[in-house]
Amino acid sequence: MKFYAIIFAMCKRNIFYLYFLLFLLCVAINLCPAQSVQDSYGESQADLPKSLNVDNKMTEEEKRLRSKRTKEQNAIIDEAVEDFYATVQNIDFGINDEDEKVQEQIDNIENYKQILLFLQMAEDTDTTSTEQELKTDLKRNISALEERSLTTSSLTGILQIKPSIYSTKNMGWTIEVRASAFGVEDIFNIEVLLPYSAFTGTAYTKPSSMTSIQKEDYENNIMIFDSFFRQGVPLVYARLTYRIQKWKNASEYRFVPQECKIYRTDRNRVITTVYSQNMKPAIFNYSPETEIRTNEEIEEDNLHAENILKEEEALNKLYNQAMNGGQTASKSDSQKGRSALFISVDTLLNTSDFSKFDIRDVYLNSICANFCITILKYGFVGGEVGYDYDKNERKSSTYALGTIGGITYTLCEYARVFAQATLLYHTNFELTPRLGAGVDFIAGKIMLTIGYNYQFCIDLYNAAHDNMDAGIDITTGHIFYMGFGLTI
User: Fold this and answer.
1) Handedness of CA 91, 93, 94, 95 (dihedral sign)
2) What is the distance between the alpha carbons of residues 336 and 381, in angstroms, rounded to a whole number?
3) How many other C-beta atoms can be found within 10 angstroms of the C-beta atom of residue 240?
4) Helix, strand, coil content of the chain in percent (nearest 5)
5) Euclidean distance between CA atoms 404 and 136, whole angstroms
6) pTM score, whole prediction
7) Which of 66, 247, 367, 382 could form a disulfide with 252 if both were Cys (CB 3.0 to 4.6 A apart)?
């Protein structure tokens, strides 16, 4: 701070010192206008591909497998590696990695801000015109940064590819594409499946349906390409298109992936493409942070960022609708039926005259274990096993066994309604058909259910004991229940 105080004192005495100091600062930080930075994009890079990011475990595994393979198999792999490098030397990949240029442009933006901050601190010196010119250049630099789509690759840029061996379950190879840049570890990270058919250019056939020749080719391809990946041979490369946005805080920026293409290197052909909807933006901060904005400008930047997020959300919704055949996912895909496992307790009221309701009439009627399985999107079936307490005048332990069937509708992530029919047989010779409805409240996989059933109780005791003269008694009642358990 003493150094700055001396500088400010000099500047206050003579405006010449101020402009001379600004000149030295511009030279020292290599300040350049936005147009010159923008024009510097486009310089071609033609280096050979760098190796893949392979850990020691894969390298050691390749050594172990090499000792176990036949000489003919190792010869096939070695020849394939030689052919690969001979081929890629003659390919013009047209790679234009712009990582260093992007960093330079961000550096220039922050350098402009540091000079503006210096001018703002020199209160007694008239630098209004100089400040205005610098602010104009600063806005031009920011616009140039935000408007341009930038590219990087795993051949010569910041991207790294970490491969894996072939998966028979996924019928392909899974690779991890990642990047560390702008002072952020893993600012970009995605996993991509490379299907066998797209990767090799050969239609995939189930091994059980292959001819002997097809199976030999299939096994050789897997052996060769797995060996390539274990050795770090860059058989595939990634090319990422992204943008940089000036974000909310003083020296805060946003890294926005737009499109990532995975190429077969020796053919320079796209295997698959990952779009922005399946990649996450990331925030990074420039150090040191320099704040020169007014409160009004801070509010404008926050509003600008919020508008960008709203636009991205709207585009993502359109993308999801297109992927679902034009249907909104919220009403179609959210209907998942009613699959659940839960314990419930209930009480029975035998009167419909609720004006005579007495809380002393409420007692534990039964405790039950229930399960439901989804049928299509809106239906479910299941079963119930329960224990009844003090059924009528017959005091022996009473158990119940029955079936459940119904329909359901998911209102939102946390609630769904249902209507169901239940038929229970009790070991005290009672049959109870029930009709009812309820609501499930859901938090993750935890479920709380409450419901009501109107019950018909058919007493078959007399019929079961050859006392048909006494007839069959049918009574009705109201069942109120609550349950707790798991759902999917």
Assistant:
1) negative
2) 14
3) 24
4) 40, 35, 30
5) 73
6) 0.59
7) 247
